[in-house]
Every structure is written in C-alpha cells, then in structure tokens.
C-alpha cells in the first residue's frame, strides 16, 4: 500500500509536528481536530515551524508554501475516509482516546493501520475498542517531530508482523527509523523519563535546588542536551502530569505518584513553552 494521504488526528504540538514532517516528505495530510480555533492555532504553528526549517536547511527541501499546501485542515472526521494511514495524537486521556477510536474506526477503510501516538496508554487497550486490533500499533514520536530521526514503536497484543512491517515502511517514508518494544504502560522511554522528570519536580518542591540548577547538573555533568525540567516544559506539564497519572494507575506503585508541585503548576496554567511559562520562562 502507498501512503499517499495520511490522516492526522489531533492538532496539538505533536499532531502539528507529525503533519509538518509528513508534508515535508511529500505526503498529503488531512489534519483533524474539534474546533476551528484549534486548527487556526495549528496553522500558525505550522507556518512558524516551516519557516524555521527553511532557515535551518537553506537550499534543501520544498518551498514552505508548497509544503503547507499539502495539509488540509478540517473538523470533519469523515474526510479520514481517504486516508491510507492514520496517526492519532489526542490528549493522554483514555476516555478521550476511546471515543476517537470508536469514531474513526467506522470511517477509515478496514485495511488501514492506526498508529497511536502515546507516551503511556496501552496499545492493546486501544485496539480492543476497534474492529482491527491487529492493525493498531503504537508510534511514540519524539518532540520536535521533524528533527527526531527515531520513533519508539509499540507492539500490542494483537499487532501482527505485517502491521509492524507497514509501520516501518511508513516511518521510512518520513525519513525515520524505529525501535520496536513490547506493550507495557510507559514503554521504555517514558517509563524512565517520566520518573526522572517527576523526581526532578520533587527536588524543586523540596528546595534541594532551583529548576535552573537541576537542569544545569544534567547538561554539564551528564552531557544531556536538555535538562529534565526543560524537557518537561517542551513536552507540556499537562501532558507530563497525565502520563505520570497513567503510570501510577497502571502499576499501582507509589514511585509513580505525581509531585504536588506538578499538579499545582498545571492547575495554575503554567504548562511550559506552550503557555509561555513552566519551570522556565519563555515570554
């Protein structure tokens, strides 16, 4: 199967990044979300991302306007009927995801693969609410999507080898490689990363060090490109909190309990880069 048109469900930070990467690699994209307001914001974010990519890669790639023209912005889920592959990127909330899959399963052709872009939710659980569990696979993209060459791919209980091969071909068409792991909440990357970020939040909460110093230690002592709290701000503290809560619920283990400071910051709207302030300021 050729992946001429790709459905991207969810036009938040990750959905915009996936749509940009797909359009830059020659795919037509149907980008779906609930409101025109969300889609207008996605248009602005895409324009900014495409201009930045053009500046960083002068003389390479298509004109930003050409790339932008490959993306169709819509609130009409029925347009996913023309998709050859679907990548879902909605919030890390099971009730939201379940409703999305029940809806798109009735619209998208039966042979089309669903890729669940999640950091913690079980792929097997997602597959169970569709009529195609063998064609449901986890595809955990990293942020910013266009700049990251590797994707964590998750095999659900019913995911077939053919679906994994399809996923590999799809990602190769985006210029990406993948590592396939088994379906346990958090998988590899976020089972470790969310614990690290949550514990870093506890360090700030307990007055052990400032957010800036926590990040500086990781960058200067371990040669990390970003500290854990800078990473949290990039991902979004609301997404971090939901991911930690999923891990806590899934494993019933106190080591995954969310830091009260993290809950407080999310309640205050301090979500990181997307709100202008999190553990660091971006205004």
Automatic annotation (TrEMBL):
Superkingdom: Bacteria
Pathway: Lipid metabolism; butanoate metabolism
Domain (3-hydroxyacyl-CoA dehydrogenase C-terminal) ranges: 186-282
Signal peptide from the UniProt entry: none
Coiled-coil regions listed in the entry: none
Residues covered by the 3-hydroxyacyl-CoA dehydrogenase NAD binding domain: 5-183
Keywords recorded for this protein, A-Z: Oxidoreductase
UniProt-listed Pfam families: 3HCDH (PF00725), 3HCDH_N (PF02737)
Family of the protein in this entry: Belongs to the 3-hydroxyacyl-CoA dehydrogenase family.
Protein name per Swiss-Prot or TrEMBL: 3-hydroxyacyl-CoA dehydrogenase family protein
């Amino acid at each position: 199967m050729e992946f001429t048109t790709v459905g991207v469900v969810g036009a938040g930070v990750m959905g915009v990044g996936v749509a940009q990467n797909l359009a830059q690699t020659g795919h037509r994209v149907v980008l779906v979300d609930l409101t025109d307001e969300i889609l207008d914001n996605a248009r602005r974010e895409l324009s900014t991302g495409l201009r930045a990519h053009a500046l960083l890669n002068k003389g390479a790639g298509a004109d930003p306007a050409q790339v932008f023209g490959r993306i169709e912005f819509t609130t009409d889920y029925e347009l996913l009927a023309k998709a050859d592959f679907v990548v879902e990127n909605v919030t890390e909330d099971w009730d939201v995801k379940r409703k999305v899959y029940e809806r798109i399963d009735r619209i998208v052709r039966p042979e089309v693969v669903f890729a669940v872009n999640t950091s913690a939710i079980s792929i097997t659980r997602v597959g169970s609410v569709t009529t195609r569990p063998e064609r449901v696979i986890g595809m955990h993209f990293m942020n910013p999507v266009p700049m990251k060459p590797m994707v964590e791919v998750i095999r659900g209980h019913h995911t077939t080898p053919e679906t994994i091969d399809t996923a590999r071909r799809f990602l190769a068409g985006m210029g990406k490689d993948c590592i396939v792991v088994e379906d346990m909440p958090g998988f590899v990357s976020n089972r470790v990363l969310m614990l690290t970020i949550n514990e870093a939040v506890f360090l700030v909460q307990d007055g052990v060090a400032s957010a800036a110093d926590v990040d500086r230690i990781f960058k200067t002592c371990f040669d990390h490109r970003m500290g854990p709290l800078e990473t949290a701000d990039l991902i979004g503290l609301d997404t971090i909190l939901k991911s930690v809560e999923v891990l806590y619920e899934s494993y019933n283990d106190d080591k995954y309990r969310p830091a009260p400071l993290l809950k407080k910051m999310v309640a205050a709207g301090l979500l990181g880069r997307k709100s202008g302030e999190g553990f660091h300021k971006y205004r």
